[in-house]
Amino acid sequence: MLKTVHFQVIDDKKLTVGQFLQKHGISNKAISALKKQDQALLLNNEPCFTNRYIQKDDVITISLNEENHQENIVPVKMNLNIVYEDDDLIILDKGKDCTVHPSVKYFTCTLANGLAYYFQSKNQDICIHCITRLDKDTTGLVLFAKNKFSAHYLSQMIAKKEIQKTYLALVQGKPNPEKGTVNAPIGRKEKGNILRAVDFINGKPAVTHYQLLKYNSTNDISLVKCLLETGRTHQIRVHMLYINHPLIGDNLYNKNNQQLNRQALHCCQLNFIHPFTKQLLTVYSDIPKDMQELI
Predict the structure, then answer these.
(1) For the chain, N or C: smaller number of CB within 10 Å?
(2) Which of 38, 93, 125, 135 is the catalytic position?
(3) How deeply is 101 buried, as exposed, middle or buried, from its count of CB atoms within 10 A (0-12, 13-18, 19+)?
(4) At what angle do helices 148-159 and 28-35 cross, to 10 degrees?
């Protein structure tokens, strides 16, 4: 697949083409690949070298072939819930009991398999890159890049905390205070164990902001909105347990609760600036039926 990106020089800073591309987030590896492909690097529609100096209003065009190395992802016809798609990215609304990417245990029934079939059916040779991930039984929005350029930019945005993810969770009891921040580092509970726990000695920084939206006194369940500053494994599940309000149905951190057959967690919103259009993109997903029925 060939992806082409245009950059316009808007200032008079004395930079080479290579320095300009690095400044705009193009990696040295990608720049080296551009040098090896014919017509892959143009300055004002003419081939150029990376040491060429640029001027204001110049237009740099880069085009890079991306080989699809996902032959091992078996295309599987699935009912994908696509909530947004353009030439550079696609956002799916994931249901419960579904993994994002193939593994030894789940080889075919994943979102990646469904996307492979979807693009194959449209005769598109798309190499997908997973940008955000959700646990198997966490529902909601998952972001994929459709080429290495958008993957590069979106991954940088994740690292810079420029992609905001909002979650809805059902928890036991009623949080007090109703709005707050959990700032507690998270690490593995034991070496090689899937379980995580708050660990102030060896854990990595983790920050979760929460707000009570609704309380059901009959079931003693609260609907809580959570915004993440960090993206640690099981972060919301661990942090809500830490403040004594574990998630409903969480078989890892709240084993005795049987009010739901999965952890009651849903990614309901993604907010970020589109890496190419530079427009604010906000995507929503309604709370799933099984969570709605409990609250």
Answers:
(1) N
(2) 135
(3) middle
(4) 170
